[in-house]
Amino acid sequence: MAEDIEHRYWYNLKTGEVEQGFVSPSVDRVGPFETHAEAERALEILRANSAKWAEEDASEN
Q1: Among 5, 10, 16, 57, which is 20 to 30 Å from 32 by CA?
Q2: Residue 31 zone, left/alpha/beta (φ > 0; ψ -120 to 50; rest)
Q3: Spatial separation of the C-alpha atoms in residues 53 and 61, rounded to whole Å
Q4: Which are the contacts of 35, defined by CB distance < 8 A and separation ≥ 6?
Q5: What SS3 class is residue 19?
Q6: Which superkingdom heads the taxonomic lineage of this protein's source (predicted)?
Q7: pLDDT tens digit string along 3-59?
Q8: Which helix (H) or strand (E) holds 23?
Q9: Three-class secondary structure of residue 35 per DSSP
């Protein structure tokens, strides 16, 4: 993430659109993502990460 983070891709949770750069308020967007295509899959990626973290938390207990 050494490159210019503000020019990466973000997924706008409010509109469902991919944006490049800091277009929307931070509360409305998730990211950054390396590519436009990756940002389009943001919700899928977030769900997968959440499931993985929940599984890891469950195995620690």
Answers
A1: 57
A2: left
A3: 13
A4: 9
A5: strand
A6: Bacteria
A7: 688 889 999 999 999 999 999 999 999 999 999 999 999 999 999 999 999 988 888
A8: none
A9: coil
* Three-state secondary structure call for residue 33: strand
- The sheet with strand 29-33 has its strands ordered as 18-20, 9-12, 29-33
The residue type of 51 is A
Contact 9, 32 (CB under 8 A): yes
Q: 41: which residues sit within 8 A by CB, 6+ positions away?
A: none
Write down the pTM of the prediction: 0.80
Q: How far is CA 27 from CA 2, 24, 46, 59, in A?
A: 23, 8, 16, 31
Give the residue from 60, 40, 59, 41 showing the smallest Cα distance to 49. 41
